[in-house]
Amino acid sequence: MAAEFEARDFHARGVQIRNLRVSYQTPQGDIPAVNGVNLSIAPGKITGIIGESGSGKSTLAMALMNTVPRPGRIISGSVVVDGIGDMLTIDKESRRRAHGRHLGFVFQASQNSLNPLRRIGAQVLDLGRSHNVKDLRALIKRAKELLGKMGLNADRVLLSYQHELSGGMRQRVGIMFALVLDARVVILDEPTTALDMLSQASVLQIVRQIHQERHLTTVLISHDMGVVADLADNVVVMYGGELAEQGSTEEVLAHPLHPYTQGLIKAIPRISGPLDQAVALPGLPPDSAALMAHGCLFAGRCPKRLPVCGESRPTYESVGQGRYVACFRVAGHD
Amino acid sequence: MSVAESTSVSPKTPRVPSGHPTFIHTAWRVIAKKPGRIVGLAIILFFALMAIVGPYLYPRQLPINPNAIYAAISWKYPLGTDFEGTSNLALIVTGARYVLFAAFMAAIFTVVIGTVLGLVSGYYLGWSDSVIMRITDFVLTIPGFPLLVVLSTVWNFGQPVAMGFVLGITGWGGLARAVRSQTLSLRERGFIEAAHTLGLSPVHILFKEILPNIGSYIAMNLLLAVTGSIYAEVGLFFLGVVPFQVNNWGVMLNLAVFSAGAMSSVQALPYLLSPLIALLVLTLGVVLFLDAVDELFNPRLKEA
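^ Those are the sequences you sent over. The predicted structure of the assembly is below.
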């Protein structure tokens, strides 16, 4: 185990998601939260997943780890992480070992993701013991190294309780926990939502820096177009539990193809120019009835609706190098 | 915000909290904060000491004195004497061991069974939860006291462990339910979710992450279970449903009321009052000390 821990391979790991379906079982019936998602997460790249609240992006992230909380249930599909296998079918114990060691996860509210009764250093040791790390001394050293890199006083932080740290510090500690076992794939679920602009900028800076240094595969989940545009190499747009559009960040931002992406980009307020240039997207996210219906999920809010949109759902198709979109308006659909 | 120089500092030891005040040290600081807590702790320690060394201070057969039956309070008999002229103080001191040991065992049984079952059922849910909670419901419906009365006809309660065991296995239902509900709310908290995604083992999560967070609640229940069990067993002896084999506080109460007529004669009053006062003082000590328990377990309160 120790040898495995020391062996640091520098091959970034990709993730292949095939036909993933997750639904939440409610008294109103099963609500699909992630509905037939196919996605390849490129190794060594930062992939931004963007979407509004309830679009299923956090559920997708949990499904990547196979830790969808009840009443959610993964119905079908596969999540193959290079070098580990299908997260959805490997046995419980291997899955537990993969968490933390191969797949790091940073929570939206890292504020609350630390045990209030134990010092940070003790929690690092707990983590090491749970993963059978023999050399705990090296683990602490690594934690210190990471914390130092993030601009924290490592010795002080390791001796602190959670309530003795600020929000930005806790978020960085959360990133440290995700990386301290040398995870190669890191999933950040809205890592900056609870932070002010300055902490946000510094956390993003750290994410970028560590991503490059450690040859990580990073999945960044956000509802903030700015954060994704700033950091991600590739962007995936989610809507109503399905993928709407995907491509390199420049492509998607400069030439959004899906009307939803276009609406999202139009809704960003500019620093200069009149404020009313930012147009809010009208309407509401799809409700359970719309999710069950046959038509395009976005049809109800779409300014460019066609008659066919209400009848059948557009497939998610390739329209160029790494570029996918699900819309009848876009060439490639007939 | 500069990249800290401390990165190169090699860690001295993997035991991170070393060089920090030990638990005993911080515990003492918490207790010393309020005089009531010191008094409470002193009373508890005093009674514990009495239970441990008390029986060695007196001969096995306590001396009787036919000339001092129901003697008044004096230097020789600080709490008066009983119907044989035996010092009430000696009776209290030698009787403490049975009472306290049985109560302690009962509290341990209650807390261990209640906590483990509550944790497991609240954390794993599913069928284990259903099974455990149905058993809990069943235990809750058993009236503990009458059961003890019935059991005492077939079971010899001369050994305090037996008494403690019976009190314990009838008393854990409420605690199991309470621990379960606390576990249910804790398991949804962010740090437990985070522990899952970091791949910490379920046993670790259950006993190192969840258990300490309900530690203060359990410790309070432990102390309250001690007093509760004392009342229950003293009550049993007082009612006389358990055969007297040993001297203890409940036996004293029974004899004072039913044989010595302490309710009607002033003479025997010290005989009745001395076990009552012992119970009162012990309860007071527990209640005073309970105040410190919350702070002992919560690092945030510790510093305030």
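The longest helix of chain A spans residues 197-214. Chain A touches chain B through 55 residues (CB under 8 Å).

Shout if you want it in another format.
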